[in-house]
Design a protein that fits this description.
The chain is mainly α. Helices cover 59% and strands 0% of the residues. Among the domains are: 42 residues, Arc Repressor Mutant, subunit A (Orthogonal Bundle); 63 residues, no CATH class. The chain has 9 helices and no strands. Helix 1 packs antiparallel against helix 2 and helix 1 crosses helix 3. The longest helix has 21 residues. It starts with 14 loop residues before the first helix and ends in a 5-residue tail after the last helix.
């Protein structure tokens, strides 16, 4: 959902708050309602975690809050995709939204991801909803937009003759450039 707004506070507690409340109940003998109120967690959820801690002795295997059930990529794969997009933009090869969607589908297929949505396979690209939420999740790192058009002068001057005449001049002046600036800065 593109513009979903939460209507309740369910599942928003932190792991620290819940473990603190569980410790108050188990070790200090505090009531479940009082411990829940002091730590800002739901008392019914707290009673479930108290039962888990009492039976297993630990909360290591318990999951806290809501999981990302429809997440296609793991966090590491998604950060690799962000790194690639930043790199592509740095070398002046920005991707459009459609190219991002195709790249995401190809990445999912190449990594044998089981949770690829059916519509991705049908269209051979990620959905627009996924792309917009991906862009929103990483809005401080990436900017997906249509690349600007190249001017007519740049296109006409970037031809076979001009490029081939550039390299002999570069070879001639390269040693003196390296002597003046050995680090290429």
């Amino acid at each position: 959902m593109r513009h979903y707004k939460r209507h309740t506070e369910r599942g928003t507690f932190t792991k620290r708050a819940m473990t603190s409340a569980v410790e108050l109940v188990i070790q200090n003998g505090c009531s479940i309602r009082k411990a829940a109120k002091e730590n800002g967690v739901n008392y019914k959820t707290l009673s479930r975690y108290v039962k888990i801690k009492s039976s297993h002795g630990t909360l290591d295997d318990a999951s806290f809050g809501y999981r990302k059930v429809r997440q296609v990529f793991s966090d590491s794969l998604e950060s690799m995709l962000v790194d690639y997009l930043v790199y592509a933009a740095r070398i002046f090869h920005g991707l459009t939204m459609t190219e991002l969607r195709i790249l995401a589908y190809d990445l999912a297929v190449a990594n044998n991801i089981d949770t690829i949505p059916f519509t991705w396979c049908e269209h051979k690209m990620a959905g627009i909803e996924w792309a917009q939420s991906f862009k929103e999740r990483h809005k401080h790192e990436i900017a997906i937009r249509t690349p600007e058009a190249t001017s007519i002068q740049r296109m006409t001057n970037f031809n076979h003759h001009n490029v081939n005449s550039f390299f002999p001049i570069l070879r001639k002046h390269l040693p003196e450039v390296l002597v003046r600036n050995p680090f290429g800065m």
